[in-house]
Structures
1.
Amino acid sequence: MTKLIYLDNAATTKMAPEVVEAMMPYLTEEYGNPSAIYSIGAKNKEVISKQREIIADMIGAKANEIYFTAGGSEADNWALKATFEAYGKKGKHIITTKIEHHAILHTAEYLEKQGAEVTYLDVDENGLVSLEELEAAIRPDTILISVMFANNEIGTIEPIKEIGAIAKKHGVLFHTDAVQAFGQVPIDVDECNIDMLSASGHKLNGPKGIGFLYIRKGVKILSLIHGGAQERRRRAGTENVPGIVGFGAAVKKAKATMNEKSKYESELRDYLIERVLAEIPYARLNGHPTKRLPNNANFAFEFIEGESMLILLDMAGICASSGSACTSGSLDPSHVLLAIGLPHEKSNCSLRLTLSEDTTKEEIDFVVDKLKEIIERLRGMSPLYEDFVKKQKKKEEE
């Protein structure tokens, strides 16, 4: 197979043709600043309002509860920092989990330096939060619970509805990082008692550099970015009109195709998982076997090193990612895989494959066949694997 096989859709997605088409006029002729009085600008303000309605409808929110940001990381920072600032007199305790995206974890660490007390909840071997432990962690001074909707590495979907009910029962604000889940699975902010929700455009065939924070009416948080009066005085900066239009087009597409897309990706994902576990020895599926994102498959392979596997896959024209952080220049294993109980050596040899509606069964077969070759090759060069095989043979002889 000569064409590129892209299986890193959790990192970013290709913009859909209809998204590019929707954006083009706002990159060329319709370039007016939405804050201007003249028609070329005022018209764009109306366009932004329309996209806000489309996006709000996707999660059962009101249009005036959607605030555009530069992406999911900004939205996460805003939710945590502004809540701590606004509700600090009530308390300084925040609850989150050990498997959150670094946009949450690093923000929580920053807030600890500002006087916050943060509880980092454990998860089980599948990445699920214990509802009992979460409720037990709530204190009189708890002001916020932040638990991601679905994990970006292992794909596990958390019990968000139940978490929201617990938060509401105790009068604690509930934020969820839904960057991976938004557009992939149905979300209803009222049904799940979500007070704040972060999402990003480029995870669902939209443009990069655009996201939003849903803030339920009545939640008293202020701006993260100060300056002009944009976003109803809550987020300064000239609006990214092309990005907002593209985001709206991507959401519209996601809503129309979600059921069909989810069914297709789930079936292909299960086929991939079945082949890998059946045909590659000493392989393990990371994340919940059923409560997972439709397009996510994450594996750990013993006796190999993750970075070498990624390089060889890339040489074969396959784009994938590892659970370890080695590709960013660090040899530290994935914090998510450590949190679900994998030892360091297994956390450094993981592979995340995330599909799209364009992925084919033929591509999956090619990837699995190539993966088998690569793992066999890497294990053939591994002293650890050689020692393991010798010990196994010795046991059999005995």
Note: DSSP finds 13 helices and twelve strands in the chain.
2.
Amino acid sequence: MFKDNQKNFSRLHMLIDAFVMAISYVCALAIRFVGPFADSASWAKSFGQYMFVLVFIIPGYWILYQAFTLYTPMRMQGRRLVLSNIVKANALGLVIIMFVYYNLGELHYSRATLYMFCFFNIFLDWGARMLVFYLLRDMRKRGMNQKQIVLVGYSRAAEEYVDRIVQNPQWGYVVRGILDDNVPAGTVYKGVKVIGRIANLMVILPANRLDEIAITLGLSEYYRLEEIVALCEKSGVHTKFIPDYNNIIPTKPYTEDILGLPVINIRYVPLSNTFNAMVKRVMDVVGSILAIIVSSPVMILMCILIKLTSPGPLIYKQERVGLRNKNFWMYKFRSMEIQPESEEKKAWTVKNDPRVTGVGRFMRRTSIDELPQLFNILKGDMSLVGPRPERPFFVEKFREEIPRYMVKHQVRPGLTGWAQVNGYRGDTSIRKRIECDLYYIENWTIGFDIKILLLTIFKGFINKNAY
């Protein structure tokens, strides 16, 4: 029943998309030839000829939307992901239309109309999908359009899956129960009951109209996986596998096909790709040069103030651990009194630390003391965006205490990063900081870097945790 509903929803989405495309196209034509731009327009083609193009645009865009997963259920898709896919599909569609026009020699169709169509279509399609999303979410909260699920195996993965379903009733998932051989029937977890043994699947599958089965076996029972999958697939019920080792592999594992043998890489680092690394390096070089030019008056002023208020060097260099666990000297404006190196190495600054100078306290609070790191970026020791580098003493300490800590050294350390813009700077949770660093490493894109740089600018450089 649910599968039939899903097919109907997909068909409805396609009809809505066709309507939205037609409206967007007509609006673009109206603005170009009737509205404010009409004075510079000429009807080289008739209205009928323009409308005839829709006969090809609509099916073409249906194919593109299908390719960009816009007809898969939205219940567990992020809204930003849906918007991103709409933008990508429309941008590609625009390129294809222009390419076809050029190759067919059709140079008299208005290009401005196509640009406006692309803009309107993105805006209206996003609005239509959000309207459908909120209507379905409201229906699911009221018990309609729900998906019936049984979990096979009581494990950590089963509990985490139930946690997320309970926290998100708008998804419309209803867990009918859990089957397990080791936990007694009647055991309840957040309203979900263990209803029997795994062997009961042979009775439940024919008797119940389930929409989905989620295999949530514990690691010790994986030897039964093939048997259970075969049983579920024989029934025709959609089956998904939720691994009990999600703390080991990332949410988006990178897989390889070795002559038919699937291989899962424990961690996918986009910056291990040569092209990605080259693009990021170019961005770092250009960005650091521009930042040095813009910030040079501030840096000159800081040099004067440091020299006038405290004896000692202007620049303080500190050994840090960077890319591939290699040590480098990181530059900062000196913000503390001169102290023995043996004392400095093994201690963070604390609140009201007497070693910090007056000018130094201001520089630390505003992050101005970190401006010389722009030269580290230019040299290639650091990047504009990345995990913050740490001193060798603390790296040795944290690598034993915090799981996956050393993964951060697979990329260049950064002047700013995802952890920093989320508030994890200075005297804050190292574990939370590493979680943010790992998320950044696994999900890196140029767009993500730009977002972090903008957040750094708009949130300001004030560091409340810097002493």
Note: The chain has a mean pLDDT of 83.
3.
Amino acid sequence: MEQKTVIVGMSGGVDSSVAAYLLKRQGYRVIGVTMQIWQEEETAENGCCGLSAVEDARRAADDLGIPFYVMNFRKEFRETVIDYFVEEYLKGHTPNPCIACNRYVKWEALLNKSLSLGADFIATGHYAQIEQLSNGRFALKKSVTAQKDQTYALYNLTQKQLSHTLMPVGAYTKEEIRKTAEEIGLLVAQKKDSQEICFIPDHDYAAFIKKHTKSEILPGNFVRADGIVLGRHKGLIHYTIGQRKGLNLSLGSPAFVTEIRPQTNEVVIGTGEEVYGDRLYANRLNFMAVPEIEGEMEVFAKIRYSHKGAYCKIRKTDPDQIECKFYEPQRAITPGQAVVFYQGDYVLGGGTIIG
């Protein structure tokens, strides 16, 4: 049997390092690659693809006895992640840049490059599993460890991408992965997981957006839903649905952001109850376990990575729009975030929330 070649995206962390080890043990010809995505004006010390991450990945590859390379994807990252992130915030949305990075950089750019070099697959250290279903379609399946499951951020992968992807880590718990790393002597065995957005390690989104846009960030009015002015805000990029802290409003009762109106540059303020809603609409749809939604379907949906999920009914309202009605109101349905639909342990599909 011909030995298959897999290029593993190595971030310098324990998960991707052990993924490379597991695939080598399974008989694949493994090549390690770190994606250079930081921009020239940045220090690039932090995050999953910074300079220190490159050295950790290179050391892990040496320990595993596999070739290692750094591939430059700066242009793709700027266009599909950074520019997207900034533009969405300017529209009053709250985007998830990791989903865009997964779809367009870690998969589209890396996979196309890998296939052109003769590889059969790419692989990552994500906590998810891939299966080909009885209908012939490829779909993500939740990892064996619920608290680390990363299928939400991967819902946008295409059938071609899934068919050329391996995710060996999804069959293990985090503790098992760290134990394996220790047993084979990897120095990254106890390395902490990266929590922040890799290109904004200080969490100051507003400062980053101001730096990367020529648009003027204008202050505007805090208003109630009926239009009554409550005060002044610093600019739409400072706020997101459900936010309570940092509003600097004294109303005598807790105040929350319930809506952002980019057309009028207004931030709507309401009560905690008004943050809840039972319906959303989404577009930029991608289906996985099924080719299309037919009629009305009951599914389990997540509206953000940390959302525990809830049951709802979905139906198509346009060729690229879906309506989702929850049985119980959900907190902070946020335009720009993804809604991901599940049937059992499998990802049915998802889209971007528009309202």
Note: The first helix runs from residue 14 to 25.
